[in-house]
Amino acid sequence: MLAVNNLSVQFTGTNLFDNVTFNIADRDRIGLVGKNGAGKSTLLKILCGWQRPETGQLVIASGQTVGYLPQEMVPDSRRSVLDEAMTAFSRIEGLLMHQQELATEIAERTDYESEAYTRLLNRHNEVTEQIALLGADNRQEQTEKVLLGLGFRHADFDRPVAEFSGGWQMRVELAKLLLQRPDFLLLDEPTNHLDIESIQWLEDFLQTYPGAVVLVSHDRTFLDNITKRTIEITAGRIYDYKCPYSEYVIQMQQRRASQMAQLTAQQRQVAQIEAFIERFRYKATKSKQVQSRIKMLEKMETVRVDEVSTESIHFRFPPAPHSGRIVVEAQQLGKAYGSHQVFDGVDLMLMAGTKAAFVGRNGEGKSTMVKVIVGDIRDYSGTFRLGHQVQIGYYAQNQAAMLDGEKTVFQTIDDIATGDVRPKIRNILGSFLFDSEDCEKKVKVLSGGEKARLALAKLLLTPSNLLVLDEPTNHLDMDSKDILKNALLQYTGTLILVSHDRDFLQGLTDTLYEFRDGAVHEFKGDIFEFLETRKASSSSSTSSPSGSSANNSSKNPTGSSGKAAYEQSRERERELRKLRSAVERVEKEISDLEAQIADKEALLASGSAQDAAFYAEYQQLKDTLDAKMEEWEQATVTLDEAEG
Description:
By secondary structure, this protein is α/β, with parallel strands linked by helices. Helix content is about 45%, strand content about 20%.
């Protein structure tokens, strides 16, 4: 058991935590949530002992251990990947030495009946049990299994850690932590540097982990698949929910609605009491009742409504200029770095309006293909071309790092803004949560999330009909990811998206390209359909996803005799995707309208007075909803007939 009692921490004059108390049990699976700056990472640092609270205490049962993986760190190792990962067993080495010391002492002593001898035997048994639990007999096997699960290959084991990128070095640190098996495992954004396969492996590992797990993550699917309890940090307090993240969101909204209802009722009661006091203040016959009500007001504790952040980015991509029917076309495309062939023989054709995702393990060539498409890489084999009048908007994986740190936020946008956009720069930056003071900050002092928002703001300034986004959700909180996803759903151009966030991809893309073993395989469908197909494929030991929708591989997809049939099949799939996208778009619009109508009906139900403009807008929303329902019915019928 780990107990937090009356914890308080101040930051810049405000309470980050105010007398917070909670417990973490031995097998808990906890998601730690709250808006950016609420104190999630600070709380993890306090739980692991990296930071001390101003007041309160942290109590951990004797002998129990805590392990912590921060969001970012700078590993410094000269060892190989395998050797560095096996340093996780340094605790076992110490226990083995202690076990030998105890065994030697037992052999030398002759006071077999004494209490000291009994204590010595008991201690030897405890150490032996600890060694067995930590798996001393198969350390290398355990290490290799974890490294492979996190995406390393056998060939990587003997390579120096320093040869790898920062993201891969963080995987080594995660591997060490998992191998140490602390009783309380604290992970701050552990999926930031992982691909989808590694994330799924980590989910399976954590679901059966013998200790407690506390997570900070902006990945909804990851949280829902692991956690059974959600602790929300808001306004210096915590709320403890015995449910995963998605259920927490519903219960949290219900709690805040209940708080608002209680506050409204209390305000009504206060108004009535104050009216009574004012009316009878000077009547002697009512003096006792007046004094009683004054005391009642003095003792009344105001219902506290949790702080709800209304700040969120809001934007829409500009209308996409017209482009040719074919946007991207590659034939027998290949790219190698020296002797390492990343991919080869790739045939790829993206039609206008397609929303495609590139998925697969890190290092398989997703970002390399992106760089070919945007023109950063030109030394490839085969042929590649962009379609007629294609204009690219590009968000690189390291886009935030590519910003000029010496420029201000305003200068960053002003340098590329032209024409009518220039007077609107501050409005654009405001929609990405940069106020007047922020606009004058230098980019180098911004947080990772602020840099990501600034890089997204740059995309709005030049209209494009092909958006290429490489991991755009890194450093974005859940609300910002939702807004970006909604903007992409309404985007009228062609989209190529590299992402490991399954929740973000769901419903956004209609085609997936899996980069695997030097080839690129095309899959028609949703990310979760793909993962299920891929799972079935792996279990049956086939070389590519099974099922009719996954049998198309963009590496040598057909022979010449089947080219006409292949093109006909692709054209039909393109038309079906357009029809499905139309249905999804209308469904999203209907959902938004229903939410707006529900808000207005809630105001009407509260009895608050409304003006004529309110009722006119309410009726307009209902009329628009009726029209959208008719549009949805027609779109659904058209899709059904096409799929018939």
